[in-house]
Write a structure and sequence with these properties.
313 residues, alpha+beta, 2 domains, elongated
Length: 313
């Protein structure tokens, strides 16, 4: 298979209008105030994939929670705030303390964002973060989606400056790859002649997701990154593509993301293109493109067009 291609060179969106300028908060040198936090940076939408983790802003904060754990009769002897299961049990009894720890989103064990729920539904967002972490610990959940807005920057306990994301609840999901694949391809059919096609579709959808997660993982800040990450989360469109591709005995060649040539006014649309080849042909004279469009204007992207397909040389 060829490498995945992200069409980053194009700087114009639909109808030739300039795409919204990228504002990377890490390129700003904000000034720290007395409590070690940074002033707010310009708003930047995020749709990132990763794993939930947590830490403490200081050793004193960790020791404070550890002391409260020891005072609770419900906590077993030897409970420690650095152990996720112990921390979750503590937060079940003290949900308001969820804001006392630093929730992080990690990509390949590297923290990329601090997650800091805000405003009216912060309590619900913290509840979701606790739920995601518990599923990672007990059910092997592999990934979560975190859409939101970068509201500023802060330091973690190691002194690393990280963007702070205020998450949007309606786009927060957690899943395992196999569960997502099962949801896309459906249950195994009873008919023997359909089982082989079902297994092939399952394998190909899993292959697409693994390539997005590991081969082209990204920070989810650029419009094309948000479109691709959304496609990996909402894999229903992808399942439809593979249903058609498998019937024609094709395999995935490349993934491309580029500005959509047609887009409603005021929208920012990107085409996610899956290009397939015919493995049985030694000389590839024709390949086939399947394209669906994602609008990334809102903090939670949305698919705006049915799957289209055509052949290319």
């Amino acid at each position: 298979m060829k490498d995945v291609h992200m069409s980053l060179g194009k700087e114009t969106g639909a109808n030739g209008n300039p795409s919204p300028p990228s504002r990377d908060p890490l390129s700003v040198t904000p000034s720290a105030n007395s409590n070690g936090r940074y002033s707010d940076s310009p708003a930047q939408l995020v749709y990132a994939l990763g794993r939930i983790d947590y830490d403490f802003v200081s050793r004193s904060r960790r020791d404070s929670i550890k002391q409260k754990m020891r005072e609770m009769r419900e906590m077993r002897k030897g409970a420690h705030p650095k152990k996720p299961k112990d921390m979750l049990d503590y937060l079940d009894e003290n949900p308001s303390d969820a804001s006392a720890i630093q929730w992080t989103l990690k990509l390949a064990k590297t923290p990329i964002y601090i997650i800091e729920p805000r405003e009216a539904f912060a309590r619900d967002a913290y509840k979701l973060l606790r739920k995601f972490l518990r599923k990672q610990v007990t059910k092997g959940v592999e990934r979560v989606s975190i859409p939101g807005v970068i509201s500023g920057m802060t330091r973690d306990r190691s002194g690393l400056a990280l963007p702070v994301v205020a998450p949007e609840i309606r786009g927060m999901y957690s899943w395992t790859t196999q569960d997502l694949v099962s949801a896309v391809v459906g249950p195994e059919p009873q008919e023997e002649d359909k089982k082989e096609e079902h297994a092939a579709k399952r394998q190909e959808v899993s292959n697409f997701l693994e390539r997005v997660y590991y081969e082209i993982h990204n920070l989810g800040r650029e419009p094309q990154e948000r479109a691709l990450n959304f496609a990996a989360t909402k894999a229903l469109q992808v399942g439809r593509v593979y249903e058609m591709a498998i019937r024609e005995k094709m395999e995935l060649d490349t993934i491309e993301v580029e500005p959509s040539p047609v887009c409603p006014p005021g929208s920012d649309c990107w085409d996610v293109k899956l290009i397939f080849f015919f493995p049985q042909c030694q000389v590839q004279t024709v390949r086939k493109v399947y394209r669906f469009t994602v609008d990334v204007t809102d903090v939670v992207p949305v698919a705006v067009d049915p799957v289209r397909s055509w052949s290319i040389r």
